[in-house]
Every structure is written in C-alpha cells, then in structure tokens.
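Re: beginner question about structure tokens

> Can someone show what the tokenized structure looks like for a real chain? I only ever see the sequence side.

Sure, here's an example I had lying around. Input first:
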Amino acid sequence: MARVEAPVLYELRRRVLRGNSPTSNVEDPRDFDSTSLHFGGFYDDVLVVSASFFRATSPINPERESYQLRYMATDFDAQGRGYGALVMSAAREALAEAGATELWANARDSALGFYRSTGWTLVEGSEHLSPETLLPHTIIVLRLDVAHSDEH
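And the corresponding structure tokens:
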C-alpha cells in the first residue's frame, strides 16, 4: 500500500466506479489540494485498489476534524482478497497522523459489508441515490479517536 498522486487512480476509478465509460468524469476538483490524501494498493506493480480522502465537514459531526472518503475502488479480480482492508488500515493511520478524528463517506450499498467489516458505522436514515451514479448509497462514519475492535 502506498500514497500516490491522484492521476494514478483515474483509470481504476473509471473502470470500477463508472462502468468504464470514457465520458465519465473521474477527477475531483480537490484531487490536488495539499490536504488531500490518495492511496493505492498494488499487486505485482499493478494498481488493484484506490481510495482518496478529502478534508470535508462531516454531515453528521461538523465539529470534528473530518475527511471524506471518495473513489474507493477495488479491481474486480482482486475483490474479497483483503487489499481494500490493507489500504483502509494504512489510510486510517495516515489520516489520524494528519489530525483527522472522523472519516465519512457516501458508500455504495453494495459495499456496506466491506465497510462494516473495517469498522465503519452506518448512519440510520441516510439512505439516498447518488446523483452521479443513480445507485443506492448510505452515509457511513468511522471515528479515529476511539479504539475499534476487529471482532464483529
């Protein structure tokens, strides 16, 4: 797992999150902000997982120092093999060092099992359709300033 520059992640973002549509926008205006952090997981030098974190006010706890997770994507052939959990662990450590106390995201409902298994909590009543993908999403949060158990 490694910190990377955002453009390294664009092809994986497009392929996994946007149905490989050449017209889909996979760039975020915050990609190059000095506070943004991007992570990639590699297998044999091939990018298999991506995650980007942007400093953003939490819709749940606006008083906390928060980062929003966006563009979490795992290559179809690598899903379920632990790469996402490894990237999430590295990201949690780096973001805590950067002063974050909470992470949040609009998570695809199809990925909620993964997020629960890595310590995230679903926000009751936050279900919605993403305006970008028209897929069901739920807001999730992860506190970084409390201990998390690996047992679920």
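Each token stands for a local structural state, so reading them left to right follows the chain. Residues 83-97 form the longest helix (15 residues).
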